[in-house]
Design brief:
The protein has helices spanning 12-20, 68-108, 112-164, 183-218, 223-246, 254-281, 284-313, 321-325, 328-335; strands at 167-170, 175-178. It is mostly helical and 341 residues long. The protein has three domains: 76-108; 109-164; 183-335. Helix 5 (223-246) runs antiparallel to helix 6 (254-281).
Length: 341
């Protein structure tokens, strides 16, 4: 039996031609037998009977459409398959990388306890950094607070300096200028102000007595109650007398200190006792003594005021406006709602 070579499939046009004019098949002589190396014998095939004549087939002039569309579709499919393979390769590589990272991390932290220790250390480091930031922020805030407090104190110092600074008239320029004082002058001003403070306290005591006198003159029916208020002033008299006696000032103020101490311990104290006793016991003699002691209190206090003014005028940087403007008459006029002229 001979070996025939299988022919490739033919297109539709070739099949139509084969139907129109069939060609006889020729045998193929193989050169080698399947079981040996000797050349094979030629086998002649019997001739096939001729096929019956086919009727004439109609011819078509319409040409087959080109295969460009199929080629483009095949190219698109090939590109899509290529993209899918590329994405699949990338996903596979990503999974491999993640597995390698996890494996490396598990290799680094061989146990869960070691991994938890690492997390605890990181948490402590984070908390320490947060604490440091809070401490630094607190220090900055404290520094800013101290700066602004110092700035406010400095501004208050400047304002007080402007208010306290005394100015004097310069006859050469016709302008007011701040007084310049030495340390000795400042010390002398401080000592005079201590003396002036005792004078102000004595004057306040005198104002309290004048207030009770005004009330007594306008409310004679309440004389007994007002007399008890006079007695209450004796505590203030005793306290002020003790402080004046204990004061240590420059010898140049000894005279005015003695006048002030005598006025507090004797003049105003005697007047208060006479008034309170006269109205409490209805003693006319005590009332006459009270009226006489009132004149002594008035005259001696004016003498103390005049001496204080003389000392103040000789000291640079002393303000005496309050002393000049006060008087018993002015104070009584203000109590009665009048304007003293």
């Amino acid at each position: 039996m001979g070996i025939f070579v299988k022919e490739k499939p033919k297109s539709a046009a070739h099949r139509l031609q084969s139907f129109a004019s069939p060609a006889p098949q020729t045998p193929i002589s193989p050169s080698i037998q399947p079981g040996g190396n000797q050349p094979a014998q030629t086998i002649a095939l019997p001739a096939q009977p001729p096929l019956p004549a086919m009727p004439d087939m109609p011819t078509f002039n319409t040409a087959l459409p080109p295969l460009q569309a199929d080629t483009k579709q095949e190219n698109n499919v090939a590109e899509t398959v290529k993209v899918i393979k590329t994405k699949a390769k990338q996903i596979k590589q990503k999974i491999v990388n993640e597995e390698e990272i996890i494996e490396a991390d598990m290799t680094k932290h061989k146990s869960a306890a070691e991994y938890q220790d690492v997390l605890d250390v990181e948490a402590e480091a984070k908390a320490y950094r947060a604490h440091r930031r809070e401490v630094l922020r607190g220090r900055v805030l404290r520094l800013l607070q101290k700066f602004f407090i110092g700035l406010c104190v400095y501004m208050l110092f400047l304002i007080c300096g402007v208010l306290v600074t005394q100015y004097e008239y310069d006859p050469l320029t016709g302008e007011l200028r701040a007084q310049r004082m030495t340390i000795e002058e400042l010390a002398e001003v401080g000592e005079f102000r201590r003396l002036q403070s005792f004078y102000i306290r004595a004057r306040n005591l005198y104002e309290d007595v004048l207030t009770l006198d005004y009330k007594l003159a306008n409310n004679p029916d309440r004389a007994v109650l007002i007399a008890s208020e006079y007695e209450m002033l004796l505590d203030n008299v005793s306290r002020l007398a003790v402080e004046i006696n204990a004061a240590s000032l420059s010898p140049q103020y000894n005279q005015i200190i003695r006048l002030l101490q005598n006025w507090v311990q004797t003049d105003i104290a005697v007047y208060i006792q006479n008034v309170s006793t006269a109205f409490a016991t209805n003693d006319e003699e005590r009332m006459v003594n009270a009226l006489l002691s009132r004149e002594v209190v008035y005259n001696n206090f004016l003498l103390i005021t005049e001496n204080l003014e003389i000392f103040g005028q000789s000291i640079k940087g002393v303000q005496l406006g309050d002393i000049y403007e006060w008087s018993p008459e002015r104070f009584l006029a203000e109590l009665g709602g009048f304007v003293y002229e």
